[in-house]
C-alpha cells in the first residue's frame, strides 16, 4: 500500500480535479498544488517537489505529454497521465515522454490507487537504476583517466604499469586527493609540457 503522498494535480477540468482531490484526500494523501495548464504544472513540480503528479493529456498553454517529458527529464516525481482517449499514438507519446502510468477517464478509485502504486514503484526502480548508471559512468571515466595517466608516467619515467599505478596510489593517499583528481593533474601537466 502507498504511503501518504504529496500530490500535484494538473487538469483543466475543475470538476475532475475536485473529484480526484476528494478521492486522494479520503485515502490520506495531501494535495500540495493544483493547476489547469501544463506550463504551470512544470513550474509547480519544480517548486513543490511533490511525491506524485497526476496530469491530464489535453491542457491549455502546454499539453500534459510535453509537461511530463520536462518533469521526467528532471526526475522530479512519477507522472500518472489521464486522458479521455485511449488512442495508440497518445499511449506511445506518453511512454516516450517518461510517463510511468496512464489511465483513461473517467477515473475510478479501484483503478487509480493500483496505478499510482505501480507508478511509484517503477519510478523508484528507475531512480535506483539511474543512480547505478551514473556510478558506472563515473567509474568508467575514472578508469580511462587512470589509464591515460599511467601511460604518461610509464613513458616519462620508464615504469611498468603496476609500478605507475602503485606510485599514483601512494601519492593520492599522501596528498589526500582522489585517484581521479591525481590522474587529471598528471594529464593536464603533460598537456602543458607539450605546448
From TrEMBL:
Keyword field: Phosphoprotein
Top-level division of the source organism's lineage: Bacteria
Molecular-function annotations in GO: RNA binding
Residue stretches making up the ANTAR domain: 126-187
InterPro entries membership: ANTAR (IPR005561), CheY-like_superfamily (IPR011006), Sig_transdc_resp-reg_antiterm (IPR008327), Sig_transdc_resp-reg_receiver (IPR001789), WH-like_DNA-bd_sf (IPR036388)
Single Gene Ontology BP annotation: phosphorelay signal transduction system
Domain Response regulatory: 6-120
TM ranges: none
Entry-annotated residues carrying 4-aspartylphosphate: 56
Pfam families, per database record: ANTAR, Response_reg
Name of this chain's protein: Response regulator receiver domain protein
Protein's organism: Phascolarctobacterium succinatutens YIT 12067
Amino acid at each position: 500500500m502507498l504511503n501518504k503522498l504529496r500530490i500535484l494535480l494538473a487538469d483543466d477540468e475543475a470538476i475532475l480535479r475536485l473529484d480526484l482531490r476528494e478521492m486522494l484526500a479520503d485515502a490520506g494523501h495531501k494535495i500540495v498544488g493544483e493547476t489547469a495548464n501544463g506550463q504551470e504544472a512544470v513550474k509547480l513540480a519544480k517548486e513543490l517537489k511533490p511525491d506524485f503528479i497526476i496530469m491530464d493529456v489535453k491542457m491549455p498553454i502546454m499539453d500534459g505529454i510535453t509537461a511530463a517529458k520536462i518533469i521526467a527529464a528532471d526526475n522530479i516525481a512519477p507522472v500518472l497521465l489521464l486522458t479521455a482517449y485511449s488512442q495508440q499514438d497518445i499511449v506511445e507519446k506518453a511512454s516516450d515522454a517518461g510517463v510511468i502510468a496512464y489511465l483513461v477517464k473517467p477515473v475510478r478509485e479501484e483503478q487509480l490507487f493500483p496505478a499510482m502504486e505501480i507508478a511509484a514503484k517503477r519510478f523508484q526502480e528507475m531512480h535506483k537504476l539511474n543512480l547505478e548508471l551514473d556510478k558506472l559512468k563515473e567509474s568508467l571515466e575514472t578508469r580511462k583517466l587512470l589509464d591515460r595517466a599511467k601511460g604518461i608516467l610509464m613513458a616519462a619515467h620508464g615504469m611498468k604499469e603496476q609500478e605507475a599505478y602503485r606510485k599514483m596510489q601512494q601519492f593520492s593517499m599522501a596528498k589526500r586527493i582522489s585517484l581521479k583528481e591525481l590522474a587529471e593533474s598528471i594529464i593536464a601537466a603533460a598537456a602543458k609540457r607539450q605546448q
